Amino acid sequence: xxxxxxxxxxxxxxxxxxxxxxxxxxxxxxxxxxxxxxxxxxxxxxxxxxxxxxxxxxxxxxxxxxxxxxxxxxxxxxxxxxxxxxxxxxxxxxxxxxxxxxxxxxxxxxxxxxxxxxxxxxxxxxxxxxxxxxxxxxxxxxxxxxxxxxxxxxxxxxxxxxxxxxxxxxxxxxx
Length: 175
Known about the structure:
- By secondary structure, the chain is an alpha+beta fold.
- Helix content is 27%, strand content 39%.
- It has helices at 8-39, 44-50, 70-78, and strands at 51-59, 62-65, 83-96, 99-111, 125-138, 141-155.
- It has a six-stranded mixed sheet with strand order 2-1-6-5-4-3.
- It starts with 7 loop residues before the first helix and ends in a 20-residue tail after the last strand.
């Protein structure tokens, strides 16, 4: 039931504030995901704070669907590295009620483990990519329902086990 004493301007202002709050929460979801990767926090609380039960993930190193096995899938990818830094920028957020489309840029640096003699001292593996995702509003807040990463460029030495399809060959500069 609407309040007849509220003006259209008040209703518009509330809608704008709601949209701003959604964008802020969705941007925080992106940043929480990236910082969690770097901190190595892969537990149930981390997964439930980010993903829907039926999340669908597509990365150049592999794909996964649903919460079951999500933590081991993430650990398998991230344990290749001693440490990482994932920087996100250019968040394009398009909310549609309780659903949203998200896109953002990624710059990531991956440091090889010191305790692997075959990899120690190698140049870090760097990637530039573009994430696309769908998020849904749940009773607990916004969660990723689908996420995919497209690698645009890479440099440095990839980890053992990184498929060739995840490494973009260097392109000579046009001169």
